[in-house]
Design goal:
Elements: H1 20-33, E1 45-52, E2 57-64, E3 67-73, E4 76-78, E5 102-104, E6 119-123, H2 127-136, E7 142-147, E8 153-156, H3 161-166, H4 172-196, H5 198-213, H6 219-222, E9 235-238, H7 241-247, E10 251-255, E11 258-262, E12 265-268, E13 273-275, E14 278-281, E15 294-297, E16 300-301, E17 309-310, E18 314-315, E19 321-323, H8 332-353, E20 357-360, H9 378-383, H10 402-411, E21 419-422
Helix pairs in contact: 2-7, 4-5, 8-10
């Protein structure tokens, strides 16, 4: 949370790996302290946004329940993340309609779900699965995590002892700054080492898992992926909770493929049957590049995959527009913070210049076949056709490197031959 938290708002809790209620409390505090609620419309959904070139305005269609509203803005900044909130990835499993219990996707989890003393099957091996399994295993009879293939899993303490020590002597803001940069540099270093020495990194991760589960556990089958570290995300578990749950026999990992759902569980292709009262399908997300909004310019639809991303936050040929897209190899908020700073600087520069429009000019020399993110995760592979492309050189290249981005966004001048500043066409 020292890197997921905002740069301007120290995270003061003891736990560095926090739960949902603590994070929500932090967000509410930030809103209250900065008097932001007056500028927030809750329970509103933007359905479409059209750039009117003659007026230099975005024309928005918004729904509040069934009520349709219209609104205009000078600058459109999309900050809704990169996945669909209404349509998760839910593959169909053979004969799943035969299952007599509940089938739940974690994206639609609610407090009414009763899992105490029940047998649970969780399908998936990503961050959602490794978070859910040890938590519900505390009250369930048993939780089986069914995975087609393993994921790299690393345990870290939920409390940062250096943070707790420094807070005894140093001001909160200074401690937050130091711990934040300690973690930023550690994340950058471990990512660099993993890419440079993948085999050594892999062996180190697997050795840590063996230390957690003991020599008798089949780490090769259940915790050894076929890909290199950081070709996909590495899953972080706090205080070894997943490993402890496995050791306590409250949960287990089954590496196999699914043959079919049956009335009382799941039949695997190995012939093994996993009995279940509830099946949780932690099968992933669907990517969504424009927050589910129908974006157009003079009523011509904007297709992100046909455009280059400028500094990882704007789209070539789209005026007065930005989107927040964080890191996949570090905390999302690090990049979101930088993007917000850049947008503020850009709008201030437009005011200083006395212009109404700013637009990245499409650079044909920068075009290539580079996908936005070099990641092999299933949800990225499935959704790349919806995402903008990155170019083969700056400022069209998406480096996924916080240290580089600090200079590109916070230090270097915004003025750039790839940016066009002008007034509306009617002028």
């Amino acid at each position: 949370m020292h890197t997921l938290g905002y740069r301007f708002k120290p995270w003061i809790h003891d736990k560095s790996i926090a739960d949902g209620p603590s994070i929500l409390e932090y967000l509410k505090e930030t809103i209250t302290e900065n008097n932001l609620m007056k500028d927030i419309l809750l329970n509103h959904k933007v359905s479409s946004a059209n750039w009117n070139s003659k007026k230099s305005l975005w024309e928005l269609e918004i729904y509040e329940g069934s009520l349709n509203k219209k609104m205009t803005c000078n600058f459109l900044f999309l900050c809704g993340g990169y996945y669909s909130y209404t349509k998760p990835h839910m593959p169909y499993f053979n004969n799943q309609e035969n299952f007599q219990g509940q089938i739940i996707h974690p994206q639609f989890w609610n407090d009414s779900i009763e899992y105490k003393n029940k047998k649970i099957a969780v399908i998936g091996s990503g961050a959602t699965a490794v978070t859910i399994v040890p938590e519900i295993a505390k009250e369930a009879e048993h939780v089986a995590m069914i995975q087609r293939s393993p994921t790299y899993v690393v345990s870290r303490p939920s409390e940062d002892i250096i943070n707790k020590f420094l807070r005894k002597f140093l001001p909160v803001k200074l401690t937050y700054f130091l711990i934040r940069w300690k973690n930023i540099l550690f994340q950058s270093w471990t990512f660099f080492i993993a890419k440079k020495y993948p085999e050594a990194t892999k062996n180190r991760i697997l050795d840590m898992v063996r230390d957690e589960l003991g020599e008798g556990y089949d780490v090769e089958q259940h915790f050894t992926p076929s890909y290199k570290p950081w070709d996909q995300r590495i899953c972080l578990v706090p205080d070894s909770d997943l490993f402890q749950s496995i050791k306590d026999k409250k949960s287990s990992i089954v590496t196999d493929t699914i043959n079919e759902f049956q009335s009382d569980g799941i039949l695997l292709n190995s012939g093994t049957k996993i009995e279940a009262d509830i099946i949780v399908t932690a099968t992933g997300i669907e990517l969504n590049s424009l927050n589910g909004i129908d974006v157009s310019i003079d009523d011509i639809k904007v297709i992100p995959n046909e455009r280059l991303t400028y500094k990882g936050m704007m789209l070539s040929g789209v005026p007065n527009f930005a989107m927040s897209f964080g890191y996949v190899n570090a905390s999302w908020t690090l990049r979101a913070d930088l993007t917000c700073e850049y947008v503020c600087r850009l709008i201030n520069l437009m005011d200083k210049k006395g212009v109404s429009c700013c637009e990245p000019i499409d650079d044909k020399d920068a075009h290539g076949d580079d996908k936005l993110i070099d990641f092999t995760s299933g949800y990225f592979e499935r959704g790349l056709s919806q995402m903008p492309k990155q170019g083969n050189k700056a400022p069209w290249k998406n480096y996924q490197n916080y240290l580089k981005d600090i200079f590109a966004v916070r230090v270097f001048s915004i003025k750039d031959s790839n940016l066009s500043f002008y007034n509306s066409k009617q002028n």
